[in-house]
Amino acid sequence: MSDMQTVLGEGTVQIEFDESFYPKDAIYGAAYVFIDRCYVHLDRAGDKRVRVTLRAKNASTADSKSFAGELENELLGQAWRLSIASENRQLIESITARALGGAAGPPGLDELLAMDIDEATAFDDPLGIAMSWEEKYKKKGGSSEETRAAGSTLGDDDETTRVPPVVPVASPATDETEKAT
Amino acid sequence: MIELRFHEELYDGFAIDEAVKLYEPYAAFTLVREPGGYIVKIEGRPESEGGADEALVAAELANYALGKTIERSRAATPATGEAKAAADDDATKEAA
Question: What's the total number of domains in chain B?
Fold first, then answer.
């Protein structure tokens, strides 16, 4: 049994309950919701019991019964939210960490220079991407001059080695055949 | 004179200090630290000296102290911030 005690007055409400049912953060959360409409005071009413006193700021429009009900609902809601937040804490933390890690972007030049990269720590390069062009296409036993001469046309300014682009052109005969059909 | 008692397990001492500093122009305050809590004695000042109603100052000070206590407690435990944010959202929706 929750043993919640409620005392209603003119524009005031006093609710006393066991702290083991509603953790302190839930009590704070519920009290905070009323802080703009009421004067709120918290006190201990014995071992593990808390007393919340609400006094309406505007006494003429205050309904102490509805304040009491609202506070009880809010206590329950806040306790439930806390329980959900603590259950999902790990998931929230991991998602936030990933989002922040992604937002940080690629490492800068200073960070790259500061990295400890050597033969042992460098990554494998089976496709030879990290190799220079000369190293990759060098003929075995040939000099670097020969390699350049025998190399592909990449970066070569000689117009004769370039292949003109093929543009498909429809022949008149084909057009006539199409019209006839 | 009005005497306010704040239980040490429910109120933050720094929050009470801050509240007293904020309302100092409107009343005279005496702070006493007792085992189990903080006591704030409030004595009104005449209106000619910029004072305000004793009861009103006491009520506003208690509210401010509670609000600051809650904010400080939330800042210390950021994981519960979601619950507060959700509560604030609900309050905004209800007000709308």
Answer: 1
Question: How high is the ipTM of this complex?
Answer: 0.77
Residue B93 has pLDDT above 70, yes or no: no
pLDDT in tens, A40-54: 999 999 888 999 999
Q: Is residue A82 part of a domain?
A: yes
CA-based nearest residue in chain B for residue A38: B63
Cα(A54)–Cα(A31) distance, integer angstroms: 9
CA dihedral sign, ordered A31, A32, A37, A39: positive
Q: At CB < 8 Å, which residues of chain B contact A?
A: 5, 7, 9-11, 59-60, 62-63, 66-67, 69-70, 73-74, 77, 79-80, 82-84, 86-87, 90-91
pLDDT digit string, tens, across residues A16-28 = 999 888 999 999 9
Work out the average pLDDT over A76-100. 91
**Parent domain of A13:** 5-87
The CA distance from B80 to A32, in Å, is: 14
For residue A21, being part of any structural domain is answered with yes
Let me know whether A47 and A112 are in one domain. no
CA distance A6 to A11: 13
Instruction: Name which of A16, A5, A13, A29 is nearest A80 in CA terms.
Output: A29
Domain containing B18: what range?
A: 2-94
Number of domains observed in the structure of chain A: 2
